[in-house]
C-alpha cells in the first residue's frame, strides 16, 4: 500500500560539531516522498524521499548561504538530496534498519538508518497515519563535502560526522473508486 509523507508532521534534522566544542543543528523544511508500507511484512516495504536542498535552515542566513554554496551542497548544480531504500532488515516488532542510497551533490553512497516504528492512528477526519523515528551518522567527506578551516588551537571549524534524525508521519493513500460513466 502506498503512503505519502505528511511533511507538516515530519522533520528531517541534522547536527555537526562546530569548532570542536559545540553542535550546530539544522533542518530541511521542504521534502516529499512515498513509502510503500507492507503492514503484513514490513521487510517488503520501500522508501523514496526527495529533499529540497535550498530549504536548509540553521537559524543563521549567512551560514545557510555558505551551506548552499559550492563549498558544501552546491544547490545551484544539485538542488535535491535523495534517499532510495534498497532493503529493510527487521530487528523486532518495532525496530529495524533501512539500507538505502543517499545522494548528495551527485555522489551516491549506501547508508543505514536505524528505525523505530511508533504505531498507527486514525485521525478525526478518517485518515490513517503511521509514525517512524530514524537516525544515522555519516561522514560528510564521503559525499565530497570537504571544506574546512584549521583552528589555531587545534582541530577544525566543522566536524566531519553529521548526525541525522528523522521523525516521519506517513498517511495511507486510499484507492479511489472508479466512477461509473454512462
TrEMBL record:
<dbReference type="InterPro" id="IPR007372">
    <property type="entry name" value="Lipid/polyisoprenoid-bd_YceI"/>
</dbReference>
<feature type="domain" description="Lipid/polyisoprenoid-binding YceI-like">
    <location>
        <begin position="2"/>
        <end position="171"/>
    </location>
</feature>
<dbReference type="Pfam" id="PF04264">
    <property type="entry name" value="YceI"/>
</dbReference>
<comment type="similarity">
    <text>Belongs to the UPF0312 family.</text>
</comment>
<dbReference type="InterPro" id="IPR036761">
    <property type="entry name" value="TTHA0802/YceI-like_sf"/>
</dbReference>
<protein>
    <submittedName>
        <fullName>Polyisoprenoid-binding protein</fullName>
    </submittedName>
</protein>
